[in-house]
Specification:
The structure is a single chain. The protein is mainly α. The protein has 8 helices and 4 strands. It has helices spanning 5-16, 23-31, 35-42, 44-59, 76-85, 95-102, 116-131, 145-161; strands at residues 20-22, 65-67, 89-92, 136-139. The strands form 2 sheets. It has a two-stranded parallel sheet with strand order 1-2. It has a two-stranded parallel ribbon with strand order 3-4. The radius of gyration is 16 Å and the shape is globular.
Length: 167
């Protein structure tokens, strides 16, 4: 949350000349409601189920850059699907950076009425071990988006070439 999945993803898609899709926006379009409204009306479990179905559909559409919500990779079924059909990239940034960024928006259901740093610290404790299963981890700081894209591209190149490197 707040790492720049959508912003970096859009720029990465442009660089790679691929379509960009944001799973959160696609879930909202499919449901005809905002994520906050889905959480409020149906709860997180139903949201995650709908999110998994939308991601399944998107991954069947062919090559693209897909930004998923921060909790999508936590679902074992979604994670297995991503592993099978895509290259997963964890954009990782310090909690302090993320807390500053997310504090500027009131639209995040998991943060409503809570201290962003506390929530993000707890999410990190729960999620980072799972996120570490991503194919590629790219550490980001307070860098411009074009530098973040360059770091992802460099990481992808190394990842794609890993099988070509002699032991």
């Amino acid at each position: 949350m707040g790492v720049g999945k959508s912003s970096v993803g859009r720029r990465l898609a442009s660089y790679l000349e691929l379509p960009f899709r944001d799973a959160d926006h696609e879930v909202e379009a499919a449901a005809g409601r905002s994520i906050a409204e889905i959480f409020e009306a149906f709860g997180e479990a139903d949201f995650r189920d709908g999110e998994r179905r939308v991601i399944t559909r998107l991954l069947d559409e062919g090559p693209m850059v897909l930004a998923t919500g921060g909790g999508a990779f936590m679902n074992a079924e979604t994670r297995a699907l991503i592993r099978e059909k895509a290259i997963s990239v964890w954009l990782k940034a310090d909690i302090d950076i993320l807390a500053r960024r997310v504090a500027r928006k009131e639209t995040r259901p998991l943060l409503r009425g809570k201290d962003p740093a506390e929530v993000l610290t707890q999410l990190a404790a729960d999620r980072y071990p799972v996120y570490a299963m991503a194919d590629l981890t790219v550490e980001l700081g307070e860098t411009p988006h074009h530098e973040s894209v360059a770091a992802v591209v460099a990481g992808l190149q190394v990842w794609l070439d890993k099988d070509k490197i002699a032991p």
